[in-house]
Structure formats: C-alpha cells, structure tokens
Amino acid sequence: MQNRHYHQQSLAGSNPVELIVALYDGMARFLNRAIAATEAGDVQARRVAVKRVLDILMHLQSRLRMEVGGPARTLAEFYAAVFALCLEGSRLSSSDRFREAVRCVLNVREAWQQVARDPEVCAMYAPPSGPGSEATSVSGWTI
Description:
By secondary structure, the chain is mostly helical. It has helices at residues 2-12, 16-40, 43-62, 70-92, 95-117, 119-124; strands spanning 137-138, 141-142.
C-alpha cells in the first residue's frame, strides 16, 4: 500500500508524455508477470496480469485522437497487435507470445522516452512563469 502511494506521488509531477511512458512500463511489468505465471503454471495469476495489460491498452486506445491521422492510426494498429499477442499468449499459455509483446512494448516505450526528453515537449508542459499565474502545477509541470 505504501509503495502504491509513493508511486502515485512520483507520477504527480509527470507531464503527459512521461505518464504514457509509465503506462508502457506497467504493460512491460504485467507482461513479465504473465510470463512468470505461465512458466509456473499459475493460470489465475496469468489471467490477472493479462487483464491489467489489456486494461492499459484499452485506456491508451481510448485516448487516441484519430482525427489527427498518421501517428494515431499507427498507434491504434500497434495496440491492436499487442492486444492480439496477449490474447494468444493467454489462450496458448505461451511465454514466447508474451515475450514478443514485451519486446514490442519496450521498443515503442523507448520512442516515447525520447519524446519525453525533447526540450520542445518539456517546454510545452512547463508551468507559466511570472506573477499572477493561475495554473495549477505539481513539481513544476502544469496540469
């Protein structure tokens, strides 16, 4: 419980791109749990882990702005592919499918991490400066 509170506090100061990176970290963590559960023959733990990954994928999918076009469509296809890998991994009790999903997630996570480090992106989410600023900020980021 204390670890969860600490994790929530650490995310409070994150910009939206860093939050996406954190969601990808969560997917990788739950996929690794699914691998461990599959190899241990723990069907219930595998199902719980896969459900958490699918929940994250559905959340990310629901936030896509499809009217933007290219990047949103590409991400939608990526999320669908990882979703399918998770379902196959669970149905077949296949650690290999889960490992493939982890590789995919970590690859795209790295791209998001690069975006999060971009000075222009950081500037977009920097709090307004100057007296009288009404923006709410947490750890230096406007929310």
